[in-house]
Specification:
Elements: E1 2-5, H1 11-23, H2 32-41, E2 49-54, E3 57-71, E4 74-81, E5 85-86, H3 95-109, E6 114-118, H4 121-124, E7 130-131, E8 135-136, E9 145-149, E10 160-162
Parallel strand pairs: 4-6, 8-10
Antiparallel strand pairs: 1-2, 2-3, 3-4, 3-5, 3-10, 6-9, 7-9
Amino acid sequence: MIIRQATEADYDGIHGLVQKAFETAKVSSGTEQDFVRELRQGRHIPELELVAEDGGALIGHVMLTGVTVRDGGAGTESLLLAPLSVVLERRNAGVGAALMREGLDRARALGHASVILVGDPAYYAHFGFRPAAPITYPGVPGEYTLACELVPGALCGVAGSVG
């Protein structure tokens, strides 16, 4: 298995991979593949969109994009990690963990200070994610909004909504 930066040539395959992966996810809106496309139209960071590939087949995907946490007029820059996708046949085999570690390492190397995501607290705690309160994500229960400081203290005193 190799982990590499996604290319435009991968985009159709990523769309199918994300759609298929979330068909069997514990929690899914059914629109995760469309969310990936929307994220690319926003503050996409090509160096932080990664795929896992094995034998020429895409088996996993993750992307980190720029977001701002706003409390009134003030804003703090961060990254949004979403979504993490692994094909059903390769789940629980370390693919997701490898994508997470590589994504966080690359974000840190590029000078980013923090990452926010919406997900399962038990799973993402393994990568240093903790409840993000008083940071919120619109429409998401607080216990599923998580954050990780890549630079210690980066989110100290930060409150507001991810946008």
